[in-house]
Amino acid sequence: MPKGDRVALCFFVDALGWEMARKHGTFASIAPHAYRQRTVLGYSCAAQPTILTGMMPSEHGHWGMFYRSDSSELASLRRMRLLPATLTSHRRFRRRLLLWHRRKSGFTGYYNFYCIPFELFSTFDIVEKKDIFAPAAFDPGVSSIFDHLAAEGVPFRSWSWKSGLDTGLAELDNELREGTTRFFLFYTPHIDGFLHDKVGDGSAVAHELASVESKITAVVDRARRSYEHVDVLIYSDHGMVKTTGSFDLMGHIGNMELAQGRDYTVFYDSTMARFWSANEAVRTDIVDALSSVDCGTILSDDDLRSEGVFFEDRRFGELVFLMDPGVLVVPSHMGASAPAGMHGFTPEHPDSYAVIMSSSKLDPEPTHIRDTFAAMRSMLE
Q1: What is the overall mean pLDDT for the chain?
Q2: How many structural domains compose the chain?
Q3: Which residues are registered as beta bridge partners of 320?
Q4: Measuring CA to CA, how many Å separate 361 from each of 148, 187, 222, 276, 354?
């Protein structure tokens, strides 16, 4: 078959950290130019929009998966609190409820109910109601790579968390054979899910990385047989930190002579807690309680501003407490036990850094994950 002109292949490998990629030499054969990238403070729900828009969370509006809202579109789920806890705490029940809610609400973005108490759904809403791997996902004034592609009439195809690794790559391969698409962005959460369970198992990690690398490399090799020029970009949103301990922050705060819902509201993420206080006296009591915890830090407004995650309306928290790297909040609203690895600690930790790899040298060097947006744009020039 005659070769086409040019195609851009972007592979977004969630949680592939700089240290891990460098240690194993992952993807060096197809993308030999590798750069370490600082991630954002927070989780994938903050990092992925930063990559796709080139903006920081305070600009694109996505930081935590859940934010405080007086008009939450999840409020109807509060009635689930009336059901027996033995039922509502079961993973299968929550999974079925989530699937039902996706169909009913029409929300196409990623969210999960995890272990969040149902009474909180009248207080918290989800940020990502639209699929961020498609155009028109963000608020007016915020454009993603897909908005630019659509506006410029570039034929493109994307895969999100909804696609399995093997199924998605097979679809990508088929579209490459047709030769009508100019830009591909393939996202996979496969490594992220694996590392949450196995990050401390060196041989298992090496085997899984090699397996994913082999599958993606095969697609790139076939593309190179069909196109004159193939641009390859492989990148991540963050790394993965091995769990070293946990702390019952929920119990620690719960021992105070304060009532949640009356005196304060809190959302317990895996590596941080976000508080809202009824008044200054309550805030002072919470600050005092947090100051006695030796495995975490209260983040100042200046800290949040420097990380690009400060929101004037405090929708993501009036007071933010961040755990030390490796130490998890257990139990939390994300789970009742500690996984082997987690992300969402300080971006300065060596294992928090993301990676971007390219088939050609990138100039200027992309030192932050927000620079990935410009790297993708350059593939269209």
Answers
A1: 96
A2: 3
A3: 274, 299
A4: 23, 22, 22, 46, 17
